[in-house]
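subagent[fold] <- orchestrator: predict structure for attached chain, return tokens only, no commentary.
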Amino acid sequence: MAENNEAASDGAVLEGNVPKPPPGPMDPQKSERHARLAGKMSQKLPAIAEDVRRRFEDLKKKSLKSGG
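subagent[fold] -> orchestrator:
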């Protein structure tokens, strides 16, 4: 019992500072869901990019009109 107290007083093992185990292989259901979501997002990216481009152009026009 004294050994544990000494280790704690040395700061070697602090409560709540226990290293987490390395992540194991991903759960097959999670990886399948992740792949499905990633596929959906990659399909949406061109539309999102076009929307951002359009908004940027609108802001640029407004800025030029206001003399900025």
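orchestrator: received. Logging for downstream: DSSP finds two helices and no strands in the chain. The CA atoms of residues 47 and 53 lie 10 Å apart.
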